Please model this.
Amino acid sequence: MKEARFISLEGIEGSGKTTSLQTINKILDKQSIEHINTREPGGSSIGNELRELLLNKKTTISSEVELLLMLADRKDHVDKVIKPNLNKGTWVVTDRFMDSTMAYQGGGRGLEISKIELIAGALELPVPALTLLFDLPVNLAFQRIADRENLDRFESEPIDFHNKIREAYLRLAEKNKDRIVIIDSSKSLKEVSAQVKKAINQIL
Ligand code: T5A
Model:
């Protein structure tokens, strides 16, 4: 049995992560690779409750509390879902992981990266073997989700917040070239799918 791999999908709101999950599933199915799809926040049962709280526009919390809730969600997700699956040989594909915290709470909210790394460092979190960063201009991503009726707490933030997140993601990609592959998500679905296939094939 091949060692199970851990893959994360990252990007700003509406960048096409969920859409590309179908492409990834098809590739893994074709290779008869056991895999699960999961997400953050909300990958475990407690996580689902935290997700409600974190995405609800009525929630008023400081950036530090937001960080701690994201990390609590992640720790539970890792312990109950990610590690048990990897340990039994099942590949895990997660829609968002630690890079989201670095980009949103670090880049977007402006929390110090060294502080985030210090707290997260105590949690023994796995590092993905591959991270696909779906990158496109913020205005294009928001055009794609323009028909959504109720924007959540993050989607409702001003454009400048999302630009900072995109920039933070691109800095993370620059620093982690061995792990993060940038997918040009401004392209057509067909072209994005071809880029995703190429990246996944590299770890098969
Ligand atoms: N968060 C999360 C933090 O702040 N810190 C953290 O540590 C973590 C883990 C989660 C929120 O929590 C924040 C970040 C988020 O704000 P969420 O609901 O999970 O919220 O939000 P997203 O992950 O952003 O989900 P979205 O659905 O908004 O984005 P996706 O999944 O990237 O986009 P997708 O695939 O739904 O595509 C959007 C639209 O574009 C179309 C699709 O059909 C769809 O309509 N589309 C394309 N159209 C044309 N060409 C293409 N190439 C297209 N690709 C997709």
